Amino acid sequence: MTTDRHDARPPYAGTRYPRLAEVPAFTEWIATGWDDRTPAPDLVAGQAAASAAHRRRLSDAMPGTTIVAASGTAPTRNDDSAYGFRADSSFVWLTGCQAEDAVLVMRAGPDGHDAILFLPPPFRPGETGFFADAAHGELWVGPSAGLAEWSEALGIEVRPRAELESVLSRATGASVTRAAAAALAGWAPSAELERTLSRLRMVKDDWEIAQLREAVDATVEGFSQVASEIPRALADGLGERWLQGTFDRLARTRGNGPGYATIVGAGAHAPTLHWVRCDGDLVPGELLLLDMGVEARSLYTADVTRTIPVTGSFSPEQRAVHDLVERAHRAGLDRIRPGTEYLDFHFAAMEVIAQGLHDWGLLPVSVDEALSPKGQQHRRYLACGIGHHLGLDVHDCSQAHYEDYMGAPLEQGVVMTVEPGLYFHAHDLTLPPELRGIGVRIEDDVLVTASGSEVLSDALPIDAAGLERWTRERIR
Ligand code: GLY
Ligand code: MN
How far apart are CA 323 and CA 320, in angstroms? Predict the structure, then answer.
């Protein structure tokens, strides 16, 4: 009997699989024959100068203290698969660099701080890592900027990541960020450094404001695209998932991606504050709460919410709820200018909400009693915060102390959200049946200017009639 070649085992079947690094014929062959392309670092225009200014501000705020910040590493998803990497915001604020496993050391000296960035160098042709290291080998990650290119782009000293430990071991008493403490053995995060970074990051410079404008403009375009997909999502039963995917694709195309988990809450999902499952159906006649933000390539993010009627018309009950939230929103916006205390907008908006709920017979106590610190009954229908600072993080500057944030006067350059809402859950028996399952939020991104404020997201209407028009123009 003859053996057909097709049925034969391959000639080396059963032999031990070779480690390529131990096969000289392979390692010699793959070491050469590559051009020496080296891309420039992936920096957004202006980000190097902005970060240099940020380092100077931090240096002035913490003289004499050596500072360590790190970009972090992607969390493992399973085995050797990782979640997508997104660099730590304070590290990006200080460097403009979005590389993984990078560490910035700012050493305190008599004339201020120096700055050294430690980066894992890419493995180039001729090095084993070129083909064997999935994290830094150029065969795996593509041609990458090296240390010299980073140094030139940022105007600071850049050294191999492997040299960090010897510098750090001499940096006794250094203050390290939370991300750096997580990345480095033997260091605890400095609450004082985190507080200082949050305080400094609150006031945005012109370059940062331009980034936020870009993020907001892209987000407005995303709202438009999502609304335009409503007819298809309805007709084909694609539901919330399709709209979430529509926004996230736009965010990835126009920016780095969504700045937080996109919320698409249709119908009875709208009152669920963080409806990030986005796996429900769209139902004609119901509301659609869209809370979405594009994170720009520089990593500054928008955070905008509108609640629109799926078929272009609010019912009388939906409209009444939306009108009350709109009044609260306007009352909040009116309080934003330099010198007012941050929380003033909150109290102004809450007063409107409590009065409105009382007028509808929904409060078990008087408006005054509800608004008092010992009451808060109105918060049953609005239990979340109704604003926050906005920047590299959606909830920016979160490590600031109360007196730096909630209790501080607003300053020119602050960017914050105002986002009152009413959340009438379908299973809340305190509500009349016609209000159950209605959720409304209006969220704008607001810049504190020299004389008042500017609503960056005002290309989207906030009134019910305007939203009906805006929606109809997109679903027809
Ligand atoms: N828009 C997301 C949040 O503020 O929690
Ligand atoms: Mn928000």
Answer: 5
